[in-house]
Structure formats: structure tokens, C-alpha cells
Amino acid sequence: MFPVVFNDLCTIFNTLPPERSTCCVPSTAWNSSSHGSSHLSSLTPPASVCNASVAMSAVVYGGNSTCDLLDGLALHSPEAHQLCESTMEHHFHDPATTSIISEWNLVCGRYWLVSFATTIYFLGVMTGSMFFGHLADRVGRLPCIMACYVGYLPFGIALAYVQHYWIFLVLRFFVGFFIQGIQSVCFVLLMEFCSPRFREIVGGLEGLIGGLAVGALSGVSYWWQDWRAIQLCLTLPSILALSKYCFLRESLRWQMVQGKVAEAKKTIEFIFRWNKLAADPSLDDKLQDMSDALVAEQQLEADYTWLDCFRSPRMRKYTLAQSFMWFTVLFVTYGISFSINELSGNLYLNLIIGSAAEIPVHILTVYFMHRFGRKKPLLAFYGSCGLMCIIAAGMSGNIDLETPRTAIIFTARFCLAGSYAVVFVYGSELFPTVLRNTAFGICIFCHTSGGVIAPQVILLGKVIHESVPFVIFGSCCLLSYILVLSQPETLHKKMPDTIDEVEGRNT
Questions:
Q1: Which residue, 103, 260, 301, 365, has most beta carbons within 10 Å?
Q2: Distance separating alpha carbons of residues 152 and 137, to the nearest angstrom
Q3: Residue closest to 384 by CA, chosen among 273, 316, 252, 480
Q4: How far apart are CA 218 and CA 348, in angstroms?
Q5: Burial class (CB in 10 A: 0-12, 13-18, 19+), 377
Q6: How far is it, in rounded angstroms, from Cα 28 to Cα 53?
Q7: Considering only 96-105, 199-208, 240-249, which range has the smallest mean pLDDT?
Q8: Residues 253-275: pLDDT tens digits?
């Protein structure tokens, strides 16, 4: 979970915007511009800095006269634009801070490349979710996990040394591709080894560890504020994960489904030895019976396709509703996270406080699922988050309300953090056995697409108005609230095995 959170959220730090950016422009180019007269008196530099040129202060996001001048130079005065590019300096609150913005001068008309880099990363995540889900079913969970780590490490390390923006994009795509393989296959392996009565606890524990990873990310980024150093520090510890091969075992369920009874026996014997339990003399017969039953179940699943998720009324309703609910979780969570460097207060302290506050949320979520089921906690989480986002949007642009607005946005993030564990457990209990994996694949695809879209929605806040992203986030949460109302409660109910059971035709 740590490398997944590290790479998903390191975007906050490697896209950190400078407070201002400056460059040198020849006086002739400046004076010929219609914008020059309004800025020249306040921006004339010391002669030792730009000689016969003048300094231009360029705000990062564009939409102002200074950026209009800078972008116009590329069309009307290539030499002046080249001088500006070569002399551009970026000024952060801490002089030691760097980001991809300062690395490749991604300001003004090039600022869209910042959010584009994040979108490319999540396209890799989306591709990885589809590819490794299928691969893990064919070759096994453990080989797939180890292959993902072996693939991720060289790309992650190379990111710390890349010199060109477009190569940076390629590397980020493949980091996202392999990272998603680690996350999705590890989660499947964990669920297949876990008893059904402990799955709620395990789901909450995963969210808890994710919160701790956010805190660790904040600490690393505070200590090393250069984006390359952060990338290296977040990647190198994953080398230790290669040792998993020595003590992690293949999924027992996968071995049984594939008819690998002898290998399954070795796995169980290892578990017996680890827990100091006596061997079961009738183990061979039990394993063969279980394998035959699972193989028959697998053959039944093979007769269905993803289209069957939409052919019957209830399956269609469940699939569409769950897909949007899964989309909202990642879309809003990462949307809020990516906008955190624009909130009032210290960025690192905000993240640490936020991750610490999420820990009791995940613990309480496990209790809420046991006490109230799946539906009521989701209604509370989505409804509260939606209202908080709408309120935060209404407070945008008011300097006097920046601190309470930050508190409200963090509250919204806490509410949605609790929905993570619920929505995964809810989906697993709602879909029938014959289509559970297929339906999960659809939901995960929609889930990861939220990460693709979130950076572009944040960019809308720069182009249109800063309230726009939170209006969209709030609307998605409130729509998810309405969709939850259309779903049945699954607490203490038998998980359906067939589509007929879902449709109520053989209850």
C-alpha cells in the first residue's frame, strides 16, 4: 500500500507551483508590446541581472497580461522567447524546493502540461488495472506481484534522473501501469486468503495503512524538497518488497481453481507449519473435492461476459450505480488531494494532520459496517462530503474565509476516506459469483478513470473559477448518495451465486 500511495500522491509535490517566475526579455520586445507600459516601472531589474533586457514576472497559471506577453513572444519574437526560456527563474517559499514546473518552465501557456502529466500517470494506472487483472488469473497472483515490482523499480528510479519532459511522461505512465498491478493483485490475494468474517476489518486496515503512508509521504517531502530526491526516496524502499517471494505464498483459491491440488497441498502444509498445527490426514481428499467444485464454478463463470452485467434490470442497475460510486471515491479523493497545495496553512502540516485524522475514521468505519450495514454508512459519507464540497465552493475567493474553508475541505476528505472500505466490501457482496470478477473489472475501470479526470477538473479552477472543481466534486457525491438509495442492504445476507438470485427469480 505504501508504494501505491507514494506514487499516486507524490504529484502534490512534483507539481508544486512556484510563488512567482521571472525571466529576461529584450527591451525592444517589451516596449513593442501593448502590455509593456503598465509593468515596466515596477519590474525594471538591476543592470547586473538582465543587462539590456527587462525582467518580467510571470504568474504560473496564465490568464493575465504578463502571461499574454510571454506567450506572444513565441509567435512574434522567437529570439526574445528563447532568451526568456534560458533565463527563467522560479521562486518558491523555500529556495531548496523544485518541481517539474521549475524543471521544464511549465508556466503560462505551458501550464496545462502539469495536469497532463498527472493524467498520463493515471492512464497507466487504468491500463494496468485491466492488464494485470487478466494476467493474474492466467499465471497466478504471486508471479504477477513480483513481476510488477521488478517492472516498477527501474522506471521509478529512472524518473529521478530524467532530463526531458516527454520522457518523464513515458516513465510516469509505466510507473502507474506497474503500481496498479501491485495494488489490485495484492488486494485480490489478501481477500482470497482472508476469511469472509474478517474482510471488513482487512478493508478498513488497508485504508488505515494508506493514511499512514500519506503521513510518511509528508515527512519525506518536508525533509527532501527537491522533486528528484523525493522520487528516489519513495522508490528505493520498494527493493525490500522483493523479499516477499521468500515468505509469501500463492493464492490457495487460485491453485484450486486451476486444478493444482499438489501445489495447494504444499501451501496448506506451509501454513500449518507456520502456525504450529498438526497436519490433517484427510487433506488430499478434501482438497480434491474443493478443487472439483471450484473448477465447476469457474467453468460456469466462463459462460458469461461483461455484457451480462447489463442485460437484466437489477444487474444493470447495480453495475451502473456501483461503477459511478467507485468513480466518485477516487475522483473526489484525489481531486481534493491535488488541490491541497492551494489551501491555506502549511502544506506538509495539512497532510500530516489529514492523514492522522483519517486513522480513527477507518477504525470507526469497520464498526459502522458491523453495526449499521453498508448502506447507511455510505449515505452518511457521500451526503456529508457532498454538502461540505458545495459549502467550500461557496466560500471560494473570500480571503477572510480561507481557514474555515480549508477545515471544511479536510472534513469532506475525511468523510470520503471512510467510504473506501465500504464500497469495496459492498460491491463484493452485491454481485453474483458468476459475474463478480467481471463486474469488479468494470467498477475498477471506472474507479481509476476518476484519477484520469481529476487533474483536468482542477485545471478548470484555474481557467474558469476556483469554485468550479468543488461544485463538480460535491455534485458527484450527492449523485452517489441518490444512487446508494437504489441499492439493497447486504449485511447478514447470503451473497448471490447466480443472476437469477439477483433478479429474485429463484429466491
A1: 365
A2: 20
A3: 480
A4: 5
A5: buried
A6: 8
A7: 199-208
A8: 777 777 777 777 777 777 777 77
| Cα distance between residue 20 and residue 56, in whole Å | 10
Do you know the residue count of the chain? Answer: 507
- Strand 89-91 relative to strand 20-26: parallel, antiparallel, unpaired? antiparallel
Asked if 448 and 127 touch (Cβ cutoff 8 Å), the reply is no
φ, ψ dihedrals at 58, nearest 5°: -110, 115
Place of cell 509593468: 39
Please say if the pLDDT value at position 24 is more than 80: no
The gap from C-alpha 303 to its chain's centroid, in whole angstroms, comes to 33
Bridge partners of 55?
Answer: 24
Residue 449: which of 306, 330, 337 has the closest Cα?
Answer: 330
Q: Each residue of 109-119: b (16+ CB within 10 Å) or e?
A: ebbbbbbbbbb
What cell numbers appear for 399 in the block?
480571503
φ, ψ at 495 (rounded to 5°): -70, 135
Nearest residue to 456 (alpha-carbon basis) of 111, 205, 186 = 111
Q: Name, in order, each residue with C-beta under 8 angstroms of 89's C-beta and a sequence gap of 6 or more.
A: 21, 22, 23
Q: How many CB atoms within 10 Å of residue 282?
A: 7
DSSP state of 4: H
| Beta carbons of 295 and 259 less than 8 angstroms apart | yes
Q: What is the 3-state secondary structure (H, E, C) of 401-422?
A: HHHHHHHHHHHHHHHHHHHHHH
Residue owning grid cell 467498477:
443
Give the pLDDT score at 57.
Answer: 56
Question: Are 389 and 470 a contacting pair, CB within 8 Å?
Answer: yes
Q: Give the whole-angstrom CA distance, residue 329 versus residue 316.
A: 20
Could you give the strand order of the β-sheet that contains 20-26, starting from the edge strand earlier in sequence? 53-58, 20-26, 89-91
Using one digit for the tens of pLDDT, what is the confidence trace for 61-119?
555 556 666 666 665 667 767 777 777 888 887 788 888 988 888 887 788 888 889 88
CA 181 to chain CA centroid, nearest Å: 13
- The closest of 120, 117, 182 to 149, measured between CA atoms, is 182
| Cα–Cα distance measured from residue 29 to residue 70, given in angstroms and rounded to the nearest whole number | 10
Which residues are registered as beta bridge partners of 21? 58, 90
Tell me the torsion sign for CA atoms 141, 142, 147, 149.
positive
Q: Are 365 and 377 in contact (CB under 8 A)?
A: yes
For residue 264, give the 3-state DSSP assignment: helix
Q: Hey, is 342 helix, strand or coil?
A: helix
* Cα atoms found within 13 Å of the Cα of residue 256, Cβ hemisphere only: 21
Other Cβ atoms less than 10 A from the Cβ of 198: the count is 11
**Amino acid at position 120, single letter:** I
